[in-house]
Amino acid sequence: xxxxxxxxxxxASMSLSKRIPMFLLRLLALGAAISATIIMLTxxxxxxxxxxxxxxxxxxxPTFKYFVLMNxxxxxxxxxxxxxxxxxxxxxxxxxxxxxxxxxLDSSISACLALGQVGKNGNIHAGWLPICxxxxxxxxxxxxxxxxxxxxxxxxxxxxxxxxxNVMNLFALKN
Amino acid sequence: xxxxxxxxxxxASMSLSKRIPMFLLRLLALGAAISATIIMLTxxxxxxxxxxxxxxxxxxxPTFKYFVLMNxxxxxxxxxxxxxxxxxxxxxxxxxxxxxxxxxLDSSISACLALGQVGKNGNIHAGWLPICxxxxxxxxxxxxxxxxxxxxxxxxxxxxxxxxxNVMNLFALKN
Lengths: 175, 175
Fold this sequence. Notes:
Two copies of one chain form a homodimer.
Chain A: H1 8-12, H2 16-41, E1 44-49, E2 52-57, H3 62-83, H4 91-121, H5 136-167
């Protein structure tokens, strides 16, 4: 059974039936990454705690800023790829860039989740109080951004698996 | 210029000169992942704050527990692979598992870094005070675990690039 392809023929043979799912996946990733960026950018809420005004926004933490930056980078990168001619000869470079992209998105969402968990539940051992009761709108935005970022990450993970599968049959019984 | 390989011949042609760097990279990843696990597991410090005993250990946060779990999984996985016969026929599966491993390690270290940043600098907006002045030994351990975890992640990233390079020449000018 011949189920393999040399990489020389990889790009050339990217038939329409293979390019359409890839295009749709990139479109999904683009929508999710842009949504994540915008939802996080617009996250804002304020509350009065003990008479002091407490304002919550994404710039309050370097982790949220990192999340915005990574999702913005993913958006721009995906946008460029969508307009790249399909017969482009950067197949390998794109595979490596896709890998880096999924790692950056994975990293940004994990960092954000760790911080969000403290924001939601606090940490009694460290004396950090939860803040979501005070600024529920901010927490809702962060939650929304995390969901969108998660979809972008999953989309990129599938893009990567799909690219690998196009280069070599991942589901072959042997190999 | 023939610089390509079909995947059929991938495993069979994994010559000694290619298996030795891979073995060394896995050995590095194993050492780093085991170190990260042990350093985090043994992180412990306590302090008296306002007359109350404050104890810092990794079980205080789900993020640190997640870090320990992921590095333990990476250790066991790497150990199994080191003892797997070199002529094994799970090439593609291992590539995908390596990808998942680098994503899990990346995720655990990013989450831990986000939490560590709050532990070190606090967050004035959320009213979270830094804790590293009170429990410096704990913070040193977390820092050490993060460095070891980072080395394991980088090792797995290189393992992945190297595996991809063995399947298809990543640095070919064309493609």
